[in-house]
Amino acid sequence: MHRPIPEFGTALRRAAVVLRRWWPEVVLGLGVAVAILGPVLRRGYLLRYDLVFVPDPPFGATVWGSGSELPRAVPSELLAVGLSQLLPADLAEKALLAGCLALAAVGAARLAPVGHPLARVAAGLGYVWNPWVYGRLHLGQWAVTAGYAALPWAYAWVLGVLRRRADGTDPPEGAGPSRRSAVAGGLAVVLGGPAMVSAAVLTCAPALALARQWRAVVAGAATLAGLTAPWLLALTQRGGGIDLDERGVAAFAARADTPLGVLGSVVTLGGVWSRHAVPVGRDQWPVALLALTLAAAAVWGFGLTRRRWPSAAWWGLLVGAVLGTVIAVVPALPGGTRWVTALVEHVPLVGSVRDSTRLLAPLALLQAVGLGMLVESVIRTGARALTPLVAFAPVLLLPGLAWGLSGQLDTVRYPAEWAEVRAVVNRDPAGGSLVSLPWSSFRAYRWAGNVPVLDPAARAFRRPVIGDQDVLVGRDRIRGESREADRVAAVLAAPGDPGPALRRLGVRYVLIQTDQPDAAEVESRFVDADLIRRGSTLTLFCLCDGGSSGSSETVGIVPTLGYSVLGVTLMIALSYPSARRRCMLLSGTSCRRDRQ
Contact 431/508 with Cβ under 8 angstroms? Predict the structure, then answer.
C-alpha cells in the first residue's frame, strides 16, 4: 500500500518544477531589480518627485481618498501603508519597487511564445529596459510601474481564454503563465490608477472583442469595476464636477526627446512630458536611429507570433498598441491639444489620464514580445554570434537605466524632528485638519539632495492634510482639483494673520517647514497661534480655540464600502473553487465539469 505523500512534499516538488522551468525568468527578475535598484537596496528612503514614503505611515486621508482632491493614490496607497505595517517603511518601498520590475520582466518573458531561454530573457528585458520605464522611475511613479508590470499577466489571461475557446481545454503547461498566476499578476493593474486601467482595457479588450468572447468581456469589466470601486466611490463622495485645468493637456502632452520628432520619440517608447526624465543620449542621432531600428525589428518580430497565437490575440494586441500610440500622440499634434481640451471640458474624467504617454504600455508589450521572437528567429537561422547583441540591445542603447539611473537614485533619512512632530499631532484626539506651509506642492530638502519631491506631510499624519495641489510644469502653473486647498489658498493670499480664517475652515494645526523658501515670512504672519514646537526644520502651531470639529480621523462609510467591494473581488478572483466555477470566474467561459 502506498503511503500518502505529505502536502509540504508536494508543494516543494511543485516549486522545484516551477523553478526548473522558470529559471531564466527568475534570474532575469532578480537581475533587473539589482541592476536598476542596486545603489538604493539599503536602509533609507528613496524620495523623488511622486515617490514619497514616510516612517510608520498611518492609514490617513490619502489612503481612503477622503480629501477633496482627486483620489489618485487609491488604492495603491493602501498597499504601501499596509506593507509598511509589516516591514519598516523604507524596506517596504524597496520591496514594491523591486517587485514591480521583477513582475514586469517575468510576465513579458512568460508571455512571449518562445522556447529558448535567451529569447525569453530578451522579451522580459525589452519590456523593462526602455525609456518608458526610465521616465517612470525618474518621476517616482511606482504605482504606474506596478500597473505596467501587470499588463503581460493580464494579456496572458486573455490568451488563456482564447486558447480555451479554440479547443475546449486549457493551454498546455509551458504555454505562458497558468491561468491562476495570470489572474493574480493581472490584478495589480488597478494600482496604476485610471491611466493604467485604460491601458489594460486597450491591451485586452480588442482581442476579446475580435474573438466575440463577450462573457469574458463582461467578466473582465466586472472585475475591473470591483477593483476600481475604492477610486470610483471616493470620486462619487467628492461630489460635484471635476474642475480640471485644461492647460494640463498641453503641459503633459508627449514631446520630442529625439531628433526623430514626436512620433519617432513615441514609437521608441519615449516622449515623456518632463525633459528631466529623458535618458542621456536620446537627443543624439546615432542613438535615436538605433532605437528606431530596434523598435522596427521588434515590430517585425511580433509579426512572427501570428503563427503561434490565436488570430484574435495577435490582431488584438496590435490594435491596442496602435490605439494607445494614437492617443499618446494626438495632444502633441497641431490642433490636437484644442480637440482633447474640448473633450476634457465635456468629459472631465478624461483629464485624469492627462499624461497620455502612459498609454504606450501596449506598444511596449508588443515590442517586447516581438524582440523575443526576433531573438529566437536569429538563433534558428544559425547566426548565434548576433544573438547576445540583439537580446541585450535594450541595455546597450540605454545604459543610463542601470545602477540607480546612473547614480541619480539615492537613499536618505528623515530628520528626527519629523517623528517628534508627528507624534505630537497624532496623539491629539481632537478633530481638525493640518495645513502644510510654505504653500507649494513640491519640496526640495537639503538633507534629501535637493531633489523635488511631493510634500511628505500629506502621508505623515492621521488627520487630513491640506497643501498646495498646483503643479509647476516649466513656466505653467497647472491648477489642482482640491476645493479645500483653494479655500486655504484664498485665506493665505489675504493680508494679515491667516490663523482666525483658517480656524473657521476647521484647521487645527499649521506645520511650517522652515528649511523651505519663504518659510520665515510665512511663520511671522501667525501672530495669535499657539506655538507647539519649533525646531531646525519644522515649526508647529496650533489653532486650538474651537473650529476643530469639522474633520475626523474615523473612516467613512464610502471608503469602507469601496475597499469591501475590492476585497470581495480579490477573494473571488483568487479563490480556488470547484472546476466549473473556477472556469466561469477566471475565464468568463462555461466549461464541462471535471471528471472525478
Answer: yes
Q: Other CB atoms closer than 10 Å to residue 203's CB: what's the count?
A: 30
pTM over 0.70: yes
pLDDT digits (tens, 9 = 90+) for 2-21: 444 445 567 677 777 767 77
Residue by residue, what is the 3-state secondary structure of 85-105? HHCCHHHHHHHHHHHHHHHHH
Distance separating alpha carbons of residues 486 and 482, to the nearest angstrom = 6
pLDDT at 550 over 50: no
The single-letter code of the amino acid at 393 is A
Task: Return all residues near 407 (Cβ < 8 A) that are at least 6 apart.
Answer: 39
Determine the pLDDT at residue 398. Answer: 97
Spell out the residues 6+ positions from residue 141 whose beta carbon is closer than 8 angstroms to its own. 49, 50, 51
Look at residue 343 and tell me whether its pLDDT is greater than 90.
no
From the number of C-beta atoms within 10 Å of its C-beta (0-12, 13-18, 19+), residue 346 rates as exposed
Residue 211 and residue 310 in contact, taking contact as beta carbons nearer than 8 Å: yes
Give the integer Cα–Cα distance in Å for 279 and 272.
Answer: 10
Nearest to 483 by CA among 242, 203, 196, 223: 242
